[in-house]
Amino acid sequence: MSEKPRIRLGFMPLLDAAIPIVAAEMGFADRRGIAIDLVRESSWANIRDRLAIGHFEAAHALAPMPIAAALGLTPFEAPLIAPMMLGLGGNAITVSESLWGHMRSVAPEARVNDPRDMGRALKAAIAARAAGGLAPLVFAVVHPYSSHNYELRYWLAACGIDPDRDIRIAIVPPPFMPDALASGRIDGFCVGEPWNTRAARLASGCIILTKAAIWHNSPEKALALNAGWAAQKPDIAHALLVAVLEAAQWCEAVENRAQLAEILGRPDRLDVPATDLLPALRGQLGMADGLEHAVPDMLVFAANQANMPWKDHALWYLAQMRRWGQTDPGPAEVARVTAAFRPDLYREAAKALGASAPRSDLQPVSEPGEIEGTAGVLHYAPSAFFDDSRFDPAAFVATCERAG
């Protein structure tokens, strides 16, 4: 009997690595005739580079990572594809106890997990610090090309805070965030769970806001594949997608969350007690006001088309890269970026499971409702920003075409 094809898959110790971990741990990969060798990494830069040079065939990756690769913004020229997303939400913003106390003093009525209120409180605290001649606050994100960077900047800018002038933004790997906060090196951060909850328990961190409140139903991580490997081994790549999609459905089931926390908490996975994983998994997050807040869509693994690699999400990330001066895209760049997101491969995996997938490559509705699927009607609610703004992908593409 021949040995199963082995796929080396890198991951970072985060809750949203759950799907590929479960695919390997719970037999979904084995039933598809493949073996997944999980490798825990310490930084997103390592994930990126090891994908590019062939140490990994696949990885739990930042959603903008394949976009940055398509634009040549990575050290190695090696295209990546994103045939599947690994869920919606999962991030939060945490500040130091000192900064939280300052925010409460200048805006005592401000409510946690309300983007406008938290923005007003932070803006007032920043103004008071500037008036006192204090250095700008330092917030950390996990990588320059990350959802964390873009959603933090989006929230700040929408609240009248200039993220390039009024604060400083540093890069810190996710597991180091609590220690960086406790040491006073940073004043706050945007990171995926469980590192907000860990900071709240161990480093006097105060969780003030969730990704779900800033950009509801928004993507976070992708299953990224080395494009060359996927082209050379299409059957194996397809088997991986099917196994990971099955695992996503298992992770979504509420009755599996306690077992999921035990799997992820192991020393070779996240190495975090299950008690620190369950709050986000259950959508019950302890926040800065000392209360437990229900965040129903804190982390969505499969519901609401969470695994669909929508091309307008790729374009939104590209728009943020343009907005913040990371790139100046023309038509060629738009084409490369949209080609990196592969809903066609996602649909093939869904079909293998007898599941329906959206027919459109773009989010087709602006309000919750029904959309056309490959095997029947699907219920769907699109992503939405807290300030009620709408991203128009066609208008953005037209802007890039004029620039080109």
How would you sum up this structure, described in words?
This protein is α/β, with parallel strands linked by helices and 404 residues long. It has helices spanning 18-25, 28-31, 44-53, 65-70, 97-106, 115-131, 147-158, 177-182, 195-202, 211-214, 227-232, 234-252, 257-264, 274-282, 311-323, 331-340, 343-352, 393-403; strands spanning 6-11, 35-40, 58-62, 80-85, 88-89, 91-96, 137-141, 167-171, 188-192, 205-210, 215-216, 221-226, 284-286, 292-294, 299-300, 369-373, 376-380, 384-385. Strands 2-1-3-12-4 form a 5-stranded mixed sheet, with helices on both faces. Strands 8-7-9-6-10 form a 5-stranded mixed sheet, sandwiched between helices. The protein has a two-stranded antiparallel sheet with strand order 5-15.
CATH topology of the largest domain: D-Maltodextrin-Binding Protein, domain 2
First and last CA, distance: 55 Å
Spans with pLDDT under 50 lasting ≥5 residues?
none
Mean pLDDT value: 97
Largest sheet composition: 5 strands, mixed
Q: How many helical stretches?
A: 18
Which CATH architecture of the largest domain would you pick? 3-Layer(aba) Sandwich
Strand content: 15-25%
Summarize the structure.
Helix content is 42%, strand content 20%.
